[in-house]
């Protein structure tokens, strides 16, 4: 019996030591391993990681592993803010601070202007008033698709496309000024130009990308309305819809700072208006547009019933001049927010529909307006996709 007691006591002591050893092993993991683990965490999960213990928190201050290509990044398939500078292209994820941004040399983009982004592709034009080059570029695969040059009057101001350039039904549209539109489809060798008759009650916003939605071209107007036409039906006139909720911001339309048109994951369109700091109650207004009944002979503007969006649920809006989209939340604690193309003091700025304020990620600071901060012109939100390589015989 004494031997059994000694044996059980010894085994119990060994188990206790093993448990202690296991506890020590978690708190004393190699800093390099902790740094690698934390590099895969975003926002809420990253914050939780930091409060586990002192050693885990200190590991997050170490330099993260260098990224040689964008596809090597652990968040390459997550939405990130891309900006094109004079020497490098920078990719910044909102869940990380600025010193963790990925900077890559992409010579093909250094003299180009981002016009639109979707499906992991960029649509770009050359810099300069007389530079009419247009091309697609995938920054994740470094593949480029040249389009015919557009030489009508002037270069494009805003652009959009319907599907990836690899799709047989890819359709590209560009706007020069307020009335000159250019169209080109996959397989065509030249652009088709159309002039849309000006309507005094509607002027397209020069800062908002058109959206090709269900075969129609949709443009937000400077007065908050919506202009629609069918690009496949030799368009010559706008079909105009008035937003019935516009009286809510009618007095502030002159102070609209930016407007965006976004296709939701439910197949509807969202209109977003950022109001200048004169609006102290609601800096950003979001509306869901209804399904439109389009009649090309409709000459009188029609009123549409829009729904005010007060919550995005478990989704995030990413808005920028180079393209916007609505995406599901991957990290916890980020839903019902609108991410802006602004990084200030190494922090990304977002707007919360819950609080009605702007916030800095990783910071308790909040504000009612941010209009003293300028949005970069040559940037966009972009989201990578699983790598697909162009066929070597691919032709536009």
TrEMBL record:
Matches recorded under Gene3D superfamilies: 1.20.1280.50
Region described as Disordered: spans on this chain: 1-22
InterPro entries reported for this sequence: F-box-like_dom_sf, F-box_dom, KIB1-4_b-propeller
UniProt xrefs under CDD domains: F-box_SF (cd09917)
Domain KIB1-4 beta-propeller, residue spans: 98-345
All copies of domain F-box, residue ranges: 26-60
Protein name in UniProt: F-box protein
Organism the protein comes from: Quercus lobata (Valley oak)
Primary gene name: LOC115985239
